[in-house]
Design goal:
Layout lengths: L19 H17 L23 E3 L4 E4 L4 E5 L14 E5 L6 E7 L2 H4 L6 E6 L3 H8 L7 H5 L12 H7 L16 E6 L12 E3 L3 E5 L3 E3 L13 H7 L18 H9 L7 H4 E3 L22 E3 L10 E5 L12 E5 L6 E4 L4 H10 L3 H11 L3 E2 L11 E5 L6 E6 L21 E5 L5 H5 L38
Parallel strand pairs: 16-17
Antiparallel strand pairs: 1-2, 2-3, 3-6, 4-5, 5-6, 7-8, 7-13, 9-10, 9-12, 11-15, 13-14, 14-15, 17-18, 18-19
Helix pairs in contact: 9-10
């Protein structure tokens, strides 16, 4: 059987008996781990997971079959696969997910938008949660009226920390310099998984941090996640340059051991331009030596473990968090949401391209507060203040006090004293402000903006950076290529 993208594995616990055969499995795993630790760095220490990372957040949702990620107080995203029969014509249009941190179940309605459904490689579904179940029961029984937070924050969470356009561009870039070939270098990715793939001691969900070694001993067993094999981001453009053998151009039949990463990428894009693959996909495919995307490899044995990502089918829909620690950091720094797992696949959904559509659907569903919440995070939205100071290029928002409608404006220039003028009352562009309308601006519109060529004599020259968040290049993505809209 041809396996283009993944090799799903059963979830096996980490309680091993001290038998000679299993001891051999551990020894083989240790040897393979050592052989795979390619490092061009002289640093002896790399950051370790902190205790904070193991506290499962309230926005991580799922059960033993699927996952979802809360992005605003009432709205979550998951993959189209996780909708199951409920999303098909004639289906109930309803779904229930448990909060991984508490085990409490919450019910919501599925919103199936054609643009989100077409998101490569697995499609996106939106879930709008009802108010908290216990509050609904109390109201139905006449015991109480629903508290305000039950309607606005049914899961008692404001959602995952969504990466702004600028932060996402800083996070998802390839390593350079002396550490370029060190698989531990660069942005690290982690996710919260189901109870069925728990590896840490105790009970509860797990945190996926690294690739795992898998050995066969009559039954497939995951035998650890070595610290020298963390889940690190590498763009497809980077992999095509550094490991060209993984991108086959020949037609079938493929030989045993052929690396089909290029084939899987073509299939995942569904006819979209291959040059824009990194705009849509977030690959977690290891190195060529791992063999994760190779065709028809022999099954793992105790003497010959294989390398696999930690994800199983139940991780589909789990949020992929990105963090960029330095070798000198003691622990991982808190991450930000950049993608959604499509497990058991290895090419995942990169969310930045889809935020405008998610925002559009929220508005269409009457979820103005959630749309404003998402815009505030994605745009790192600023609030206008009398006599305030800003940075040209920053985006500001203004909501109508009566209708709740939100409009966006870009700061174009400052007065001589470094302050900005009032927002336009007629929503027309002027020297100081550019009106962006009510639709969420795309990443291209935010990051590729350049100041106009001429300003009034009262306007100072533009600063070297386009954001107070940091000196990242606004016109390039993580691979150094121009950002697409």
């Amino acid at each position: 059987m041809i396996d283009l993208v993944s090799r799903p594995l059963p979830a096996i616990g980490r309680r091993f008996l001290a038998t000679p055969r299993r001891t051999a499995c551990w020894v083989a795993a240790a040897l393979l781990s050592t052989s795979l630790a390619v490092s061009a760095s002289t640093d002896a220490r790399w950051p370790a997971p902190s205790a904070r990372l193991y506290r499962i957040p309230a926005w991580a949702l799922g059960d033993d079959s699927c996952s979802a990620t809360l992005i605003t107080p009432r709205v979550a995203l998951t993959t189209y696969y996780c909708g199951g029969p409920a999303v098909l014509p004639g289906g109930s249009g309803r779904i229930t997910f448990a909060q991984r941190s508490t085990g409490r179940s919450f019910e919501g309605r599925l919103v199936n938008d054609p643009q989100l459904q077409a998101a490569p490689p697995a499609g996106l579904l939106m879930i709008v949660f009802d108010q908290a179940s216990e509050a609904r029961a109390a109201v139905a029984a006449g015991r109480a009226s629903p508290p305000a937070e039950a309607a606005s924050q049914p899961l008692r969470s404001s959602g995952a920390p969504v990466a702004s356009y600028r932060r996402e561009a800083r996070l998802l870039r390839d390593p350079t310099g002396a550490r370029r070939d060190d698989r531990r270098a660069g942005t690290r990715v982690y996710a919260y998984g189901p109870r069925s793939v728990q590896w840490r001691s105790g009970t509860g969900p797990t945190v996926h941090l690294g690739y795992q070694l898998v050995a066969g001993d009559g039954q497939l067993q995951r035998v650890g996640a070595p610290a020298d094999m963390p889940l690190t981001y590498r763009s497809l453009a980077y992999l095509r340059s550094s490991e060209p053998g993984r991108f086959l151009t020949t037609a079938r039949p493929w030989a045993s051991g052929d690396d089909l990463l290029g084939v899987a990428t073509t299939l995942a894009l569904g006819g979209r331009d291959a040059a824009a693959a990194d705009e849509w996909l977030l690959p977690l495919v290891g190195s060529a030596a791992d063999g994760i995307t190779r065709h028809a490899l022999p099954s793992p044995t105790p003497q010959r473990p294989t390398v696999e990502p930690p994800f199983v089918r139940a991780d589909s829909g789990a949020g992929l968090m990105a963090t960029r620690p330095r070798p000198s950091d003691e622990f991982y720094v808190p991450g930000a949401l950049v993608g959604l797992s499509t497990a058991p696949g290895h090419l995942h959904i990169r969310l930045v391209r889809h935020w405008p559509d998610v925002h559009r659907v929220m508005l269409a569903e009457g979820l103005r507060d959630d749309a404003a919440h998402l815009a505030r995070r994605v745009l790192a939205l600023k609030t206008w203040e009398q006599g305030g100071r800003g940075v040209p290029g920053d985006v500001y928002g203004r909501r109508d006090a009566v209708t709740g409608e939100q409009r966006f404006y870009r700061l174009r220039a400052l007065s001589a004293d470094g302050t900005y003028w009032s927002l336009p009352d007629d929503d027309a562009d002027n020297v100081w402000w550019e009106s962006l309308g009510t639709a969420l601006p795309t990443r291209h519109e935010v990051l590729n903006w350049r100041p106009p060529g001429a300003f009034p004599s009262t306007a100072p020259s533009m600063p070297a950076t386009d954001s107070a968040e940091g000196p990242e290049s606004a016109g390039t993505n993580e691979s150094g290529h121009g950002v697409q809209s």
